[in-house]
Amino acid sequence: MTQSNRPTILTGDRTTGPLHLGHYIGSLRARVQLQHEARQFLLLADTQALTDNVGRHRKVTENVIEVALDYLAVGIDPTKSTILIQSQVPELAELSQYLLNLVTVARLERNPTIKEEIRLRGFERDIPAGFLTYPVSQAADITAFKATHVPVGDDQLPMIEQTNELVRRFNNTVDRSVLVECEAVLSNVTRLPGIDGKAKMSKSLGNAITLGATPDEITKAVNDMYTDPNHLRVSDPGRVEGNVVFAFLDAFEPDVRNVDELKSHYRRGGLGDSVVKGVLNERLQALIEPIRTRRRELEADRGEVLSVLRRGTMRAREVAGETLSDVKAAMGLSYFL
Q: Which GO molecular function terms does the record list (predicted)?
């Protein structure tokens, strides 16, 4: 595949905390592979994170480098993927401003993803304007790099739909094809549960295993995992469905046959939780150890990590600047050319 025929991918993470195994299985692992197959932009979405973290801005900005460390530690190659800081690409904010004129408040409020996020945060009608309009900001992020593919979870499909609505609206308004529609790429991995079994894995909920977790932290997390509350004795038949340990084994253990055998044994009885947890603990220790080691090496030279971010951000500004120039020319805003 030639460079010109390669798809362009835009993906990223809010910088509200270090990344965890839910991120790894849901997107990071795929991004490492995609960088060999596509032109990939990885966005550290600090501006978006600030929309619902008023007063907690230091946490957001401090975690920019933490997320970057996680990217590099899992194998993201900055010579193949462009890692950028959202707030340092002003072209994105300007493009957002133009796109905001093409959508109504009512349409934003109907976005199912936004409605659910508002409910979860308890905003009711006290919705920060920046949060309500973040679908437009996300559309600017995607269209600025003319991304053709955007890996997302199914809960983000309304965001992609709204992005493409804005693309069509803009192109129809200026009567030319300037912006590019994108395609959602769904992960084939279901969302990883938290170790408590009650919600998705989240650092803020205290039910996550970070990519920099120590051996003791991993062991403790595995031992604390929710299993089957009715599996009181080793001899009792156990339930696999809803059992977090087996959900993790399905996600991380490549020996599918062994996992199936463990499930069968657990269901008929005679297999203790401690044995199954021991298998998972061994697998997670082997997975995280090289990531943790690499992360510590990178952490020793944060100046170089910042240099990587600076170079990636400057590359991103060039690409976004070209798109913005096309947008302004189409709108008649290129007064001095």
A: ATP binding; tryptophan-tRNA ligase activity
